[in-house]
Specification:
Helix content is 69%, strand content 3%. It is mainly α. It has one domain. The chain has a two-stranded antiparallel ribbon. Helix 3 (52-75) packs across helix 10 (265-279), helix 7 (192-219) runs parallel beside helix 10 (265-279) and helix 8 crosses helix 9. The longest helix is centred in the middle third of the chain and has 32 residues, at 113-144. The chain is globular, with a radius of gyration of 21 Å.
Length: 302
């Protein structure tokens, strides 16, 4: 059963106006503070392996910022110019935090002002490009699958009964095979280039999977307890694959476990942030074409 879209005060699918602007503004302030997490890393003893999980957690926070910026740019329905401007401002803030972190490292070499500006421009280009590329995926999701709307009474929305087909199983097995193959390739890499390429592809797969799964699980209609739990379990498993790939398992078991949990921090931040958005009455409303395709795939014989 679908609920009508609230058209009061401009809260429609064509104009995303927060139901509780104070709460969402507070969320923005919290994320501005979280953006300083990499700088806080310099206060820790970087050479002490006991602090490795905490260092991983601090350094992984910017990934959650990129996830949420991409979601807003791709799923937000305000004017394109404002979304692009927000992406640039957010990327500039993240780039500044990362550059300050590299400058404040205890063993950081002395660099000139020109080198620092070049380093900042590079970090800004990487952050902005990442946000826009992943925002394209969310835009496609909004275009063909579902869009973000405010529901007057979210209780009347129900999640469709959980079903899966052979296609879903094949996609899951293919994804798992690729992740395991990239993990093994990294551990047995014979050159730095091969290792970097494998890590980049694996990192992108983890990043994209966690982002889209977190959005779907958190903002879909109906109960979200089990989907959110499954998304976190998936994030931990993918973080374990990354930890094995970079050979964190050679350390003590508690260090490896701490690093795995730390690398799942971005997904936790994204889920908690989207729960705030959900509390304001926003849901992902599936488009009729996507629902018809799902019904057709589920009704087809296995």
């Amino acid at each position: 059963m679908s609920a009508p879209i609230d058209q009061s005060n401009g809260n429609t699918a064509l104009n995303w106006v927060p139901a509780d602007s104070k709460l969402l503004r507070l969320l923005v302030v919290v994320h501005l503070l979280l953006g300083l997490a990499p700088i806080a890393t310099v206060l820790l003893p970087l050479d002490d392996i006991r602090f490795r999980p905490l260092i991983f957690a601090f350094l992984s926070v910017p990934y959650s910022q990129v996830m949420l910026l991409s979601f807003w740019v791709g799923m937000g329905t305000s004017d394109v110019i404002w979304r692009l401007l927000g992406a640039m401002m957010g990327s500039a803030y993240l780039a500044a935090s990362l550059v300050f972190f590299s400058i404040l490292l205890p063993d950081a070499p002395q660099t000139s002002t020109a080198e620092r500006i070049l380093r900042y421009e590079t970090a800004f280009a990487i952050c902005c490009t990442s946000v826009l590329v992943f925002a394209g995926g969310f835009w496609r999701m909004r275009r063909f699958y579902s869009e973000l709307c405010r529901i007057p009474d979210p209780r009347v929305c129900t999640r469709p009964r959980f079903q899966y087909s052979i296609r879903h199983l094949l996609l899951l097995m293919t994804f798992a095979a690729i992740v395991l193959g990239l993990t093994r390739m990294m551990r047995s890499a014979r050159s730095v280039t091969e290792e970097q390429v494998s890590f980049t592809i694996l990192g992108l797969m983890v990043f994209v999977t966690n982002s889209f799964c977190a959005v779907r699980a958190t903002l879909e209609a109906g109960r979200i307890g089990l989907p959110v739990f499954l998304v976190y379990v998936l994030a931990v498993l993918l973080a374990a694959a990354l930890g094995i790939a970079i050979q964190c398992d050679k350390f003590a078991w508690w260090v490896f476990l701490g690093c795995v949990l730390a690398m799942s921090v971005p997904t936790i931040i994204v889920i908690l942030s989207l729960l705030v958005v959900r509390s304001c009455g926003y849901r992902l409303i599936r488009k009729r074409r996507a629902m018809a395709e799902d019904d057709e795939s589920q009704s087809s014989p296995a």
